[in-house]
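Fill in residues.
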């Protein structure tokens, strides 16, 4: 799966979200399943991959240092988990939860990596996204994923994963751009209706600049991230 195909899966996941809502896992089956299937092929089918949308369609649990954790994508060798990948696709109301997303990522990573299991993260977010109030109305000014929001990922990118167990083995930060509607959208229903009926709707990579990322974070390059996962596991488990 290359970047174009990855964006197609993100688009399909987003469209499914419009139809099924945020509580349904149908959108996850598309995106998680596509990533899991791609990694399975890249690894040469050496290992078993567990995820929604692939195989038995179930997530697997990884034994952490403190608690066992159901993981979005688990890679196993002879029924033993050897790596995990967390996937987060944020579609709305980001700013109020931005620090929570980041802190939760660090916490779940530390729990698993402290048990000597590699753990990777994928974080996908639009460069502009709606913010809904409690009544489902959209604020006049849409939220933007800014350089301020990205700053903590830039800092993360400079971490040494060999000494920082809270830092994912590799993180993919993928910022996308969703086409602007030709007219203002007032609420959640108008948002869903417009994008679900937009026949030529496609997601693209954001053209915004977010700073210089060092080795621990891959920015907007799925193929580079996937190759990093495969190379790391091949290094740990040579043929």
């Amino acid at each position: 799966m290359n970047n174009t195909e990855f964006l197609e899966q993100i688009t399909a996941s987003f469209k499914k979200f419009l139809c099924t809502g945020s509580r349904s896992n149908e959108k996850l089956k598309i995106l998680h399943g596509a990533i899991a299937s791609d990694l399975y092929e890249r690894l040469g089918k050496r290992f078993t991959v567990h995820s929604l949308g692939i195989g038995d369609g179930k997530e697997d649990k990884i034994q952490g240092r403190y608690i066992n954790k159901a993981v979005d994508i688990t890679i196993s060798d002879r029924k033993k988990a050897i790596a995990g990948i967390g996937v987060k696709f944020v579609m709305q109301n980001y700013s109020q939860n931005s620090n929570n997303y980041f802190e939760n990522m660090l916490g779940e990573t530390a729990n698993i990596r402290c048990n000597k299991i590699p753990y990777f993260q994928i974080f996908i977010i639009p460069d502009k996204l709606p913010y809904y109030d409690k009544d489902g109305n959209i604020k006049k000014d849409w939220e933007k994923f800014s350089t301020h929001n990205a700053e903590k990922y830039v800092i993360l990118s400079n971490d040494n994963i060999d000494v920082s167990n809270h830092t994912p083995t590799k993180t993919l930060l993928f910022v996308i751009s969703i086409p602007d509607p030709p007219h203002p959208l007032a609420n959640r229903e108008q948002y869903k209706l417009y994008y679900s009926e937009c026949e030529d709707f496609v997601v693209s990579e954001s053209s915004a600049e977010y700073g210089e990322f060092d080795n621990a974070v891959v920015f907007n390059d799925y193929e580079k991230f996937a190759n990093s996962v495969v190379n790391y596991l091949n290094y740990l488990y040579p043929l």
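The first helix runs from residue 3 to 20.
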